């Protein structure tokens, strides 16, 4: 009997071992049990890709955060040089040129030397014409009255702005108000530059015209400095001696040549002489 029991026990043990081996062999090919091992391997590449993407995006994020690299600052930098070029488009004359021009003017018998002491512009007769706002001459950098009705806007060339009084029957000249960058060599002082500019205005009067001074004074044109000259222009037309009342304001303009505002009115239109006071008191730098 003992032999029989031993035989049964051995057979049972062999059966158990065989079942275990079979289970191991079956589990090796079971996809459900293989998935965890493969899923861990598949997850690793996705983590690496995410970290790589983050490191690749980091420089771009850093560039946006860097101060001073905004698109606006780049645009502004490209626009500034153009403005600077426009601002220095009218360079001042060299010292030699200025000295020669001033020396020639001082020898010109048509233009006496300026009075040593200041002389204020007197109030001229008449009433000022109606004005509506101002003309903003951006080329020259000044604003001046925009007269209505009596004065008319005219083609500005060769100036930057021009207003004219109506023609007078039998008269060759009429009142004119203009503005422009100073068309003569800039001098060391506003006073000397204004002196040369007044001499230049004789080109817009009858041939042989001469000047006598009625005013010479510093002025404030808005927030900028300037110099005012008043004068009478003497000339002869058709054998008769005639005069025009005239004045100019020379205004210091930032980063440009000084601006000139010049007005002249012949005695045939002397009712408008007071407009000269209106102009000279209204000139301002832009």
Automatic annotation (TrEMBL):
Residues 70-91 are annotated as: Disordered. It comes from the Bacteria. This is Fibronectin attachment protein. It comes from Microbispora rosea. The lineage of its organism: Bacteria, Bacillati, Actinomycetota, Actinomycetes, Streptosporangiales.
